[in-house]
Amino acid sequence: MGEIDFKSPALYINRELSWVQFDHRVLNEARDKSNPLFERLKFLGIVSSNLDEFFMIRVASLKDMENAGYEKPDISGMSPARQLKELEVAIHRLVDMQYSTYNRSLLPQLEKNGVHVIRRHEDLTKEEAAYIDQFFGDNVYPVLTPMAVDSSRPFPLIRNKTLNIGAMVSKKGGGGELEFATVQVPGVLSRIVPLPSEEKTRKVIFLEEIIERNINKLFLNYDIVCAHPYRIMRNADLTIEEDEAADLLKEIERQLKKRQWGEAIRLEVEEGIDKRLLKFLKKELGVVDSQIYTIDGPLDLTVLMKLYGLEGFSHLKSPAYEPQPVPEFSGGGDMFERIRQGDVLVFHPYQTFAPVVEFIRQAARDPKVLAIKQTLYRVSGHSPIIAALAQAAENGKQVTVLVELKARFDEENNIGWAKMLEKAGCHVIYGLVGLKTHCKITLAVRREEDGIRRYVHLGTGNYNDATAKIYSDVGLFTCGEMMGEDATAVFNMLSGYSEPVFWNKLSLAPLWLKGRFLHLIGRERENALNGRPARIIAKVNSLCDRDIIEALYEAGAAGVKIDLIVRGICCLKVGIPGVSENITVRSIVGSFLEHSRIFYFENDERGEIYCGSADWMTRNLERRVEILFPVETPELKARLFHILDSQLKDTVKASLLQPDGSYEKVDRRGRQRHDSQKAFCQEAAERAGSVREETGKAGRVFVPEVHHE
Q1: Is 520 left (phi over 0), alpha (psi -120 to 50) or beta?
Q2: Which of 80, 93, 440, 481 is deepest in the core (most CB within 10 A)?
Q3: pLDDT digits (tens, 9 = 90+) for 690-709
């Protein structure tokens, strides 16, 4: 063991290429014929959404490094320039497979099931064309802003992520030079336009095809030589100099505007685009051939999310799941009284997020509650939590809210909430300089007969009632004295920069959470070396911190059995002789987004379980405020272990990491079919159902079908 260099780049997978593998796993759900047809459409749209963000942040960051001459290799030994070259090949392959799936599999299946997507406006019948032209004149034409480019009109700002139609035009009657013109496809109009049809088949056409068909009406003095859709992606990775920003809120507002005119890093064009038009776009946008993606189909397949919303096709979708009541809080009543009886674990979206919202609402109304403190990273558009906090302030309570303005792509939303909370009388903190506050914690301070008691909610996911219906997360309600003391210390640190000397239960990043994880992993290693029971099960979204991976390698080499459930990026390699033969990695991609972080350490048969907001990424452990909290009640520990165990047994939605870095679906031969997400739905319904039987309350509980072989 002493001869192994655990820092060797050969032992690590490149982070960005690992992410591309993750998007392939999402794409595989779109290709999986056992999934309902419209669910496959949704997964194909998610691939595009993921890819957009990847370009705007990760590819953009690599381009910045390359432009700056930064050549330091990553943990896998790859320079930024080499990563970009490898990503170029990998992403083109991903996009080709995505559109092959759309054209060769999903479109024919839609046709068979009564949905006809008209690919090109030239395919319209005479009657349909007349309808479309009328529709254009009545609904689309008034919204459009056509822009020509000539000596007096420079190339316009093409906004990030917008869909546009570019054209080469020439003045009528004239032999003049070709000129460029463009029009943005308006986002305020539905991109899917249904056509009247007397047949059973529902026909739809995309808005850009309607505009392209009628583009001559926008440039009346010109002949249209060619017209094609195009779309660009810009660098959207904000660089905020916090130390120099007198007002962080204003600095972020200023930087947000730059997203619209950052460097172009990807150009998507229609297959068959006129070479003259493409040459002009390349020159004006400053892109090279490797940044151009020629698309055989509609640009920006996130439009398939809208297609999913077509009414009348529920038989082609998974049955809608309704989150089940939390038995401990059934029947309403005083939540504080119930929490005093013992800690409560909630598991979203299988169980409803309502108790989290109700906890803050009750705290806002309860005259015994003196103060409410909460961190907010991402919240919904019409957040009931924000409303409850504002109400609490208006009721005279001390309300302190940390709103993380640097939450990527939620900056503008969070700025709005921060201003609104301040107007309501809340004390708003904008986070710490140089750090993102990513932890999820709420503290309610209550005066009771026996003195002050602190009620705490800790979670692995955001305080967002919308995403809580699709993100899988766990949360803990507790009024344990030591947990309450730590919660107070957290907020004192965030608001006053006072770091306590001693912590009872919570582990915080960037203070000492990483050290805590390394200690726990190292303890399992020592136990294995001394012949004592040793095992690690960890469920995270991403794993790319070299120190953590190195510690896992050392523990695995010492004989610790390590099972990792990593949804997305994983830079650890499995199956390396003498290094990672005892380590397995699986990724679960299903109807719900796996988002919870749960950690189990055997500890010589005295198993410990922790939950938290942090992934095993360097940014989470060293550059963010994160919280790891223990779950100590035996019943709740058993429930969390069951969650981990159920996912380790998943034979439907789990893919296993292979020694070559690829992922393969679990081999189901001779094994029972087990879909962990469906099993959790069923278990939540059964728990809620047993409570209804005990209380005599009626109510229909949806139980998804769980297949067994």
Answers
A1: alpha
A2: 440
A3: 655 554 443 333 333 333 33
